[in-house]
Amino acid sequence: LFVTVSGGDGKRVLDLTRDDFRVLDNGVEQKLVTFERGEVPFNAVLLLDTSESMRGARIEASRAGVHSFLAGMKDVDEASLVLFSDRLLAATPFHNDRKPLEAVLAKTDALGGTAINDHLYLALKLLDGQVGRGVIVLFSDGTDVQSVLSMQEVLWKERRSQSLIYWLQLNEEGSRRTSISSAWRDFAANDREFRDLQRAVIESGGRIEGITSIGGVEGAFKEILSELRDQYVLGFYPSHARHDGKWHEVQIKVAGRGGVHVRARGGYVDY
Hints:
alpha/beta, four-stranded antiparallel β-sheet
């Protein structure tokens, strides 16, 4: 479990010990066998929307954000760059060397529609073969309109993963969002897909970061990297595993600290 703890002021709480945490699996307290914080290596998929609407200043802001993220990685961290529109435009192997990733990013133009679901599923699949902490950073300015996969299928995959999903949602209109209809789905179905994407992000233990101007993109990428450095890593062996494919709800509590907010994966599939 990768856990972010913040205080009432929004600042992350960094001085907790193993004894401060209680982990409950379907209401049953578990014994921690792993406790770490900070410099735990990660494998990140940087999943970038490069559809037609990202042309110009938006894609340049996206490139700047990725550059800052890669520059902050350590030698033990690795990243894969996946660029998509209504189809896969580029995908790199995992590297700890930023140069091949930045070379791919520099050559990519923005074109086509938006298929978030299909490529989020792909990102989760890419992390299946990686050891250690998995992270997906999705950067998009739009709503899925052309994926073949539904978000219910992505949710199925997310629940069988341990990867954190962060959604950097560029919305220069602020809180306003207009319902859309597409060839695949009507207004109500597209709204449901949007809500299910939000659900997948929150359930994974990640978060949604709304960005209201392109000037905030680079800072948002840097903040995700900073959060990863400040996370606690808790591990346990489930005391009542049945391998029956059922969902287990996981709760994490911090003892003796009032007003703190704990964010982590909401559960797992017992398989």
